[in-house]
Design a protein that fits this description.
The complex is a heterodimer of chains A (about 600) and B (about 425). With about 600 residues, chain A is of the alpha+beta class. Helices cover about 25% and strands about 15% of the residues of chain A. The longest helix of chain B is centred in the last third of the chain and has 18 residues. Classes of the chains: A alpha+beta (about 600), B alpha/beta (about 425).
């Protein structure tokens, strides 16, 4: 690779050719502020806060738009540069309302942080600020089904405009009017309608674009813990961060307050889709299955785990193991599938089912969302399962034919995913109704028509409640970490399966999830990605400040100044270790 | 003195194709097509023709920078977005001598290997567009534009595009953006238009007057052209006289002429209206520093005005007599710059508005002494930090008026009113009421 060597603040730095001065400064450990620059978008050069002095150039240059050249001498901290930068910050705050105390971005706002770090002490502006739609709550206007827009706060970095044009592929946002009256708006009155709209909140460096899902829900210092995990909404496997709100266990409301994308160059770059971002409320909803249920003559009753497992054993014995069939959704993790494989041969057969849902997106989008809503189909294949006649589409015809002939006496459905993740269930309900399936066992996370009809219900964990691994469509084996504890008596699915295995007369040698992963690693080690499973480490909650500094290169500098001036949070700096999943809380939440 | 660009502007029907051909029109194109493109560029380079749009960049060099080896099509963009306050020379050329512009465009296309030229005219020039379109149709019918011109196999088409009316569209990259159908906002440079301009193809953007100078250079030679003016400032130049002169208008003169002659000369401005005293001259459109009466005995050439500490710019001379309130003048200009700022980059977008508000406060008599220093500080903070030259242009009127006429600003603050006997202002208000 060709490199160039330049001097930044007296330090010699070598970077690959073609890098901008701003990237070189950040690579060398220095920092300059920026707003319009975003590593995932094209350079705009309009905010002017990244200006630096470059020797032999008459004016100060924007470092984001200047390419590194051999022998360049860059100064980022001379009095001239600092004064110029401060003047630009003064301009940025001329019309920006100082409503940080009520702004959703307050506390994690680059404008707030940088203005404190680099701006002048006070503004000399004495005129009333420009107001677009009104002040206070009137300033917030609809910006599509997922977003709200506050134009007073906008600093015209045009990241949102460029995101829609370059990544989404449907340039719905434009700048209207001119000069100081410039405003962000959509060409159609309905606002931004896109499956990637949530990213606009991420790219917005101020509180101008907020999501309806997160606004007014929490402040950055209220959710000081963040966990690196992945999204399991589809086969893409976007890397995400889950944010936990600090609150006592008895307090109302969810602990998981938002999911944001995490940089992964190979998979999702800086982005994630709205389905993954906003569709997490089911995790802590009232519809969660909290306890095992067994149907008796009195109806379906909550029972302890041991009684439920006895009931499973009785049901398997009554039906005969070879007349029992297993239906697995694509949401089952590698660990769960491995355990299932240990007794799959004793059953009548394992069938996979998932939802195929093409997403309405522009044809030229740079971030296509797969139609397959299953995070682990590739992993199932790698473990040696057969998905159906074709790998791409759900094929349950064999199972349905067997049910129709009455060969299936027991159906065991495993679905640790949200509604619909096991595909069409109408036919199961019909078969159960007509008595073609004598016994229905459902292992899942949410109450549904299927669990209502089931004879035995086993409550499992959602993807943010267990340490498990998934293999996405491109073969990346990725860990999804435990973010929060599961509700009620819900247990990790691989553990449930290893106990159900006993009912089928099999024994699972592995007693910990780590041992299961080691077994997978030794079995699939020749497939790329799997050998690392042997000693995989999961992300644990870390303070948001540490997290941002460590993981997201794009936002590295933004968080440098966060939380420094604040008094200690009421819950202290550390939650301590999260309770283990198999320890049952005294009172269901 | 022989008029080269504007000989027939006052002749009835002097703008028509028949008249132009009778005067030997399109012969320069015939001659240029018999030369190689490189020779045409060399002749223009040798003539020392400098861009008439404002920066005075050598035209031949600009054409030479166009990447001829590129496999992409090349374009000529004629910058006819004449929006600088005090400038109205291109308007005259397009309205009264359109075929000279067409011929210049065609020769430029031949020189850089382009097949298409776009004339981007200002949104307010709708009547000029009609003239251009009509004459373009005639020239096309006569075979001067289109396929196989003069049987030489040279194909060239000219399109007229009228913008939506923005000062910023006169910046060359903003012009290109606007031509592509986007907002007229400047691009980052590099890459320069010569490498990646219109539709990402090599492009040369030239002013109307610049292109109009090309046919005479081809016909009569580079040496003749250079000999018309002082060294490195050759050729004829159009001067736009406006403000408090007796005969405002467009005057053609070689660049030997002095600013003083232009204002007081009988064949030019004819002196100050009402024989009042001269107070200040803005020599090159509103964006350049002011010249004081004792500074005007200088050649009105690029280098001459530069030496005096200002710029020739677009040669739009705004003459202000002793009754002019400089605070009002600055506020007036800043209203324009605030209104025309494209809003892309921060200092110009926010700073222009702030300056205008400050000036308005002082002009209304509500200002404080600290506002004057604040004006200078804000203007200095804009200068040199913007994406294009607009920011510098917007700050200049403030820096130069406060720098030269600070006592007037202080008087406004002290007295709470304008201390000048400015009867024109009450006249202007009376007119406004009458309408």
């Amino acid at each position: 690779m060709e490199t160039v060597t330049l001097t930044i603040d007296g330090q010699s730095v070598t970077v690959p050719k073609g890098k901008s001065v701003l990237e070189a400064i950040h690579a060398s450990g220095g920092h300059v502020p920026y707003y319009c620059y975003h590593p995932g978008l094209q350079v705009d050069g309009s905010c002017r806060v990244c200006i630096v002095k470059i020797e032999k150039m008459p004016k100060l240059q924007t470092s984001c738009s200047t390419a590194c050249a051999d022998g360049m001498v860059v100064t980022t901290n001379s009095p001239e540069v600092e004064a110029a930068r401060a003047s630009v910050f003064e301009f940025l705050l001329v019309n920006h309302p100082l409503d940080c105390p009520v702004c959703d971005k307050g506390g994690e706002c680059p404008l707030q942080d940088y203005a404190y770090s680099y701006g002048p002490e006070r503004s000399r502006m004495e005129f009333p600020r420009r107001v677009f739609d009104g002040e206070g709550v009137k300033a917030d206007v609809d910006f599509g089904p997922t977003l709200m827009l506050n134009r007073n706060r906008c600093i015209m970095c045009t990241r949102c405009e460029r995101f829609m044009k370059e990544v989404d592929g449907d340039a719905q946002i434009g700048v209207f009017q001119r000069g100081v009256h410039s405003e962000i708006a959509t060409f159609e009155e309905k606002g931004v309608v896109s499956l990637l709209s949530g990213n606009l909140m991420d790219v917005c460096p101020v509180g101008a674009i907020t999501t309806r899902d997160y606004r007014f829900k929490s402040r950055p210092w209220d959710n000081p813990m963040a966990v690196d995990t992945i999204c399991t909404g589809c086969e893409k496997g976007c890397n995400t961060t889950a944010w936990i709100k600090a609150k006592p266990e008895w307090a109302k409301g969810a602990r998981l307050v938002r999911l944001t994308p995490r940089f992964n160059e190979d998979i999702n770059q800086y982005w994630m889709c709205d389905i993954g971002r906003f569709d997490y409320h089911w995790v802590e909803s009232d519809r969660r299955l909290l306890q095992p249920h067994v149907r008796s003559s009195r109806g379906s009753d909550a029972t302890p785990w041991d009684e439920a497992l006895v009931a499973v054993k009785a049901a398997v014995d009554a039906a005969g193991a070879s007349h029992a069939r297993v239906l697995v959704s694509g949401h089952a993790s590698l660990e769960e599938l491995y355990v299932l494989k240990q007794f799959a041969g004793l059953t009548g057969g394992v069938t996979f089912s998932w939802r195929h849902r093409p997403k309405p997106q522009p044809a030229n989008t740079q971030f296509p969302i797969p139609a397959v809503d299953a995070p682990n189909l590739r992993g199932a294949k790698d473990l040696g399962f057969k998905l159906g006649a074709t790998d791409s589409a759900t094929d349950v015809s064999g199972l349905r034919a067997a049910v129709d002939t009455g060969a299936v006496k027991l159906l065991y459905v495993i679905d640790p995913g949200p509604d619909g993740s096991v595909g069409d269930t109408e036919w199961i309900l019909a078969a159960k109704q007509s008595g073609k399936i004598a016994t229905l066992i459902v292992q899942g996370v949410l109450k549904s028509a299927l669990t209502e009809a089931a004879d035995i219900v086993l409550p499992g964990c959602a993807f943010v409640e267990k340490d498990v691994t998934f293999t996405n469509a491109t073969g990346h084996v990725q860990p999804a970490s435990r973010v929060i504890t599961p509700p009620g008596d819900a247990a990790e699915d691989w553990q449930i399966l290893s106990k159900v295995a006993v009912a089928f007369g099999a024994t699972v040698a592995q007693t910990t999830a780590a041992a299961v992963r080691q077994a997978i690693a030794s079995e699939c080690g020749s497939t790329p990605g799997y050998s690392a499973l042997a000693d995989l480490a999961f992300s644990r909650p870390v303070s948001a400040r540490q997290y941002m500094q460590a993981s997201n290169p794009m936002e590295r500098g933004k968080w440098d100044t966060m939380f420094q001036d604040l008094p200690p949070i009421k819950f202290g700096d550390d939650f301590g270790p999260l309770p283990r999943a198999d320890v049952i809380p005294l009172k269901p939440v | 003195m022989e008029l080269i660009l504007t000989p027939h502007v006052n002749t009835p029907n002097g703008f028509t194709l028949d008249f132009y051909v009778k005067q030997g029109g399109y012969e320069a194109l015939r001659k240029a097509l018999s030369m190689t493109p490189d020779d045409v560029v060399d002749v223009v380079k040798a003539s020392g023709l400098r861009g008439r749009g404002g920066a005075g960049f050598p035209t031949g060099m600009k054409w030479q920078f166009v990447d001829k080896k590129s496999s992409k099509p090349k374009y000529i963009c004629c910058n006819a977005d004449e929006s600088e306050p005090g400038t109205f020379k291109d308007h005259v050329l397009m309205e009264r001598n359109p075929h000279l512009l067409f011929e210049g465009c065609l020769i430029a296309c031949h020189a850089i290997g382009a097949k298409v030229a776009y004339i981007y005219i200002r949104g307010e020039f709708y009547h000029v567009q009609e003239v251009l379109e009509a004459e373009l149709a005639k020239a096309r019918a006569a075979g001067f534009i289109g396929k196989n011109i003069f049987g030489t196999g040279f194909d060239c088409e000219i399109f007229v595009h009228r913008g939506a009316g923005a000062y910023e569209a006169g910046e060359e990259t903003a012009l290109i953006e606007s031509l592509e159908g986007k907002r007229a906002q400047p691009r980052l440079k590099p890459p320069f238009p010569a490498v990646a301009g219109l539709y990402d193809c090599p492009t040369a953007v030239n002013n109307v007057e610049t292109l109009c100078n090309v046919p005479p250079i081809i016909t009569r030679g580079a040496e003749w052209f250079a000999s018309l003016g002082p060294e490195k400032n050759g050729g004829p130049k159009l001067y736009c006289l406006s403000g408090h002169v007796k005969r405002p208008g467009v005057y053609e003169a070689p660049m030997h002429v002095t600013v003083k002659e232009l204002i007081y000369g009988e064949q030019y401005g004819g002196g100050i209206r009402g024989d009042r005293k001269l107070k200040a001259v803005i020599p090159g459109g509103s964006s350049v520093p002011i010249l004081l009466p004792d500074q005007i005995d200088i050649p009105a050439s690029f280098d001459g005005v530069m030496k005096a500490g200002s710029m020739l710019g677009s040669a739009g001379m705004i003459v202000m007599d002793e009754t002019t309130c400089m605070v009002w003048a600055a506020e007036n200009l800043l209203y324009f710059y605030k209104h025309e700022s494209c809003g892309k980059c921060t200092p110009c977008r926010e700073g222009g508005d702030w300056l205008h508000k400050l000036l308005g406060r002082i002009e209304r008599g509500e200002g404080q002494m600290k506002d004057i220093d604040l004006l200078l500080s804000v203007a200095n903070n804009i200068t040199g930090k913007t994406l294009c030259a607009f920011g510098d242009a917007a700050a200049t009127p403030v820096l130069t008026t406060v720098g030269l006429f600070r006592e007037e600003f202080e008087a406004h603050v002290r007295e709470g009113r304008c201390t000048l006997k400015a009867d024109w202002r009450s006249e202007a208000r009376a007119h406004a009421h009458a309408h």
